[in-house]
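Hi R.,

Here's the chain you asked about this morning:
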Amino acid sequence: MPHPELHRLPEGAIYRMITDRVQFEDRVQLEFSDPIRCLRVEDGVLQQGRGDVISHEEFNVDAFRCTEDGFPLLPVDTPISFQVESLREAAKTLDPAPDLSAHFADIAALRRRMPELAALDAQARNDALTYDALNLDVKDPRVPQKYIGEVTSRAPEKAELDPVILLIEQQTRVAPENWHRVIDMPRYQHESLRAIARAMLAPVIGNAADLEDMRILKMDPNEVERSAAMKRWVRNAEESCELAPFSHPSFPGYETGVPIFAEKDGVGIVFFEDHFASYAYAFATDPDLKLELRDDEPPAPRFF
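And the predicted structure, written out as tokens:
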């Protein structure tokens, strides 16, 4: 008996299935099937010319996303946030621009099949949250997307941050070149991620929430010693204090640990951790700086 949703197969996207992986000394060469239309349904994946379904797991391992004319784009068995970014880039750069809507619908189905965030490991949770953020329809009030290239290429460095960053290097061995402007980080080239970052930071560090001038030091989970050294430096600084965690109601499921703030020679340093990594932000302060401390009554959140 045909599958009850077989009539929906024309809604599916075009894929090539990996038929062989040929191992060479320095690479793996993939062999592909002819292009085939597939549609993800609740109990598996329907394939053109086949009346039953194959399991989600079997399909995900061997399927390669393609344009309607069969041009390979990327494998299904990769992080869903990476797939969205890659497909959006393909839609902008390929000529003629391909219709990838069926692939985006399939990625949305993959996201719905993921467990609750609390049940995911750090890597998968970060992937799910990034995917969710990429699909929020929010605008960056400071740097609209059409101006991001101008800002990243022309915005001046805040030289007044350098003496404090050099001092941190002397006391923690964190090299200055490990710090980067927030606005230059790849994730913040996406308008929705910039908008969310501003909305999270502004209630806590107020007028210092300027992604164009802030520097960021990202420490991966395996950088335990560097993260511990940076945390000690901030914790042991004069007048160190704890801030309210960074979160926002438009981005449920994400909240940082308790940030620690210290100020040195007009430069604020915030250290915090989330489910995926540790971070330090450096930014210029001024006499009007207003912080939301950990025990403060939280202000009403800003909605987009």
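Residues 181 and 215 are 4 Å apart (CA to CA).

Let me know if you need anything else.
M.
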